[in-house]
Request: fold
Amino acid sequence: MDKYLQNMKFLFNPSSVAVVGASQNPGKLGFHVMKSLTNGGFPGKIFPINPGGQEIMGISCYPTLAACGDMVDLAIVVVPASVVPTVFQECVKNRVKGIVLITAGFKEIEDPQGAVLHEQLAAIADRAQIPVIGPNTFGMINFHARLNASFTPEFSLLKKGHIALVSQSGGMSHLLGFLGIRDNAGFSKIVGLGNRLNVDFAQMIEYLCEDSQTKAIALYVEGIDDPGSLVEKAKAVTGRKPIVAYKTGSAHVGDQASLSHTGSVAGKHDIYLAAFRQAGIVTVPDSQQLLDVAKAFAYCPIPRGKGIAVLSGQAGPGMAGSDICEREGLEIVSFTPQTQAKINSLLPPLALRTNPVDMGPAWYDASAIAGIVKAVMDDDNVGGILLFMMFASANVDAVSGMADLLKSWNQRKPVISCMLSPPGIWDEQVCELEECGAIVNYSTPERAARAMAALCKWAKMTRKNKG
Ligand code: COA
Reply:
């Protein structure tokens, strides 16, 4: 394995971290980086570096990297741009293995000196084969290593899980991360690429494909200098790990915003989308869907066909979900005669008993609902199940009545749900079902159906890839 790839492993799993520009002053980003590391519970050694500091957050300070007298795996750099080349040279001298460069003021600024500085840093890092996240980044988090290498300590509130988010924007990383708290999504890593000195989307895809903690890769892309390498890398791994991407910059004004944001022109939006699709990347049109699809990719099995069953406690949500399924090319399948007979025995004739099934008349009988769900689970025509239940007081036991069945079934086929109640009634039960992998839940039937459609698209790509 080459040194760069080896160093990527240290970058994300360091034993020791230095913060160059650590500060006691809450008005400095170096203070917040220290808070992220300590509050996040990083178990390795932390070296605050500040020429004038004594102690920061109870940890002895060092004037320089060299003074640490110990091996530093990762350096997080938060000093002004003009100082960064010297810091990089010190990193090389002290055999630092990876760098997170938070500092801005490089090729995204109008002053051409910014681009010159960028090239200078790239030359130093490339020669030593040190991977650098940034510059102009909020940082990165490896949740499985309890490493919050960012200036936002609150990222440590996120749930550890299997979605890796790689984003060109710090703001979108924050948005998606905090949306993830609300949506009970678990992350393996969140990486803000910033201006991409030598770690770009392509390098991250390559690394994350080998990362056992990552089951799905979510990309937020604005514009990149070398889209070809992303596409090539994604093509090479098609079928191994699902990738979903949200690309912004379709409006012309986005090009200018992107240029001043992370130093790249967004480029021809449609060409990007077509190339992504060709490379086996599922594309989505907004940030909520990026998270929704990533969650389904990370926590659902691959459906064995595009035949979908829609089981709903009320007819309306079932219709809304079915509309999306049809629009997305999924098939609301006919059940086998055995399944249909079973459902007919559990539901009165006044109900909609064929797919999509309205389970409303069985509300008062949790065992009847469980019986319908079980029959559909066992139906060979069904590749995935959409399960909707809106709370209505009389059906308060509906979720607990299905819980054992859902847990023991353990998504042998994907079960994507929308179980929704006023806060505090079903939340804990739904959360527990998600935690044990029995369902993946969304707050609307449309979101659930779109996630199922993305899963089916990914399944199709995987099958194609296997020939
Ligand atoms: N080694 C170690 N520490 C050093 C140092 C060096 N060579 N040179 C300076 N420092 C210390 C300073 O003493 C200071 O700490 P103190 O105030 O506690 O003494 C600290 O590093 C920061 O230096 P300072 O000159 O005060 O800079 P700053 O905090 O005002 O700005 C950045 C530094 C990196 C935050 C700023 O240049 C920057 O890039 N901001 C934008 C970051 C950003 O937006 N990133 C993208 C987000 S998505």
Notes: The CA atoms of residues 167 and 411 lie 30 Å apart.
